[in-house]
Protein: homocysteine desulfhydrase
Amino acid sequence: MTTSNDARLRLDSLAVHAGREDLQSLGVHATPIDLSSTSPLPGVDAGGEAYEIGATGGDPSGISAVYQRLWNPTVARFERAFAALEGADAAVAFASGMATTTAVLTAAKQRRGSHVVALRPLYGGTDHLLATGLLGTETTFVDAVEHVAAAVRPDTGLVVAETPANPTLELVDLAALVAAAGAAPVLIDNTFATPVLQRPLEHGAALSLHSATKYIGGHGDVMGGIVACDDEWAHALRPIRAITGAIAHPFSAYLCHRGLQTLPLRVRAQQAGAQRVAEALAAMPGVRAVRFPGLEGSDPHGLVGAGRQMAGPGSMIAIDVGSHARAAAVAEGVRLFTHAVSLGSVDSLIQQPASLTHRPVAAEAKPDAGVLRLSIGLEDPADLIDDLERAVAAAG
Ligand SMILES: *Cc1c(COP(=O)(O)O)cnc(C)c1O
Structure:
């Protein structure tokens, strides 16, 4: 049996095998779920030593796992596997994407400073967290990579961006962003692309963050978050996770780890379907505009088409149907799509960001009320196109 640490393994093989190196020696074929909230300690002094290791970001398992909030073997497996897929030293898993973002902002503040430069558009929750300053950060929002360099200050702890961005599918040139950020570390929300299509650390980003609730889990039945980074960031993040109680539950980590095995297959099949749906939408009367990185016009710098940054366009589409009333009629008129927030599942979802995911976002950064966001699943694209055609026509 090969090991996933074998640098020669390609992404699809890593997806299947990483984080499972010891299964053979354990005599099992599927990964165990270790649910213990506490673990026996070999002695008072050794227990204290293990606690110290866990609480300061290390792996105490050579002595004892101690307590689930500090360290958990099932979570650690998912982290090892995910780090391999992102080409990172390490990864740190959390209870949700927002818990991950919270820990990264806290770590950035501790390590470098409390100022953040955020490139809009961002996921609504991220925008909201930054705009409220809830964590004691001060954020300068910019709307183009060209404005990042001027916004960076000596106390800038983090530059935050998302590509493809939520909900408009705008693309950010990572190399240009990293250059503009200078010494400030760059955090990329890589939820839409997944490591199958884009690995931000290869382009100079310090951190690649995911809502694992989406494509990683992939079946709409688990919440989680994870960030891939170097060992130093991981060492800063783990104590914050332990103190704030934000670690992923072992069952969540198990499902996310299992999700990695089919991630490349799902991502490629869903994006092939999305390409067909996007092309049909572009020709559909009643649809004013379609944003999909696989369409000419949505990828002006060749980040996808020329393979400069992404290995494919993904399976998220944004359309503009012209008004709030028409967007509502389409979202309420579909039958095969589910009208729901979230994305990245095997089934297709549709939602109007202005009313839902981007509700708390400031007016100047809120998407138009006529915009709908579609997450394409694994259904036959012809059925999805039929469903949209019917709903768009009925919307008048
Ligand atoms: C859903 C989402 C988040 C937040 O993740 P949760 O798991 O819901 O906390 C962050 N970024 C993007 C792009 C998302 O889609």
Q: What stands out?
A: The first strand starts at residue 90 and ends at 94. Residues 250-282 form the longest helix (33 residues).
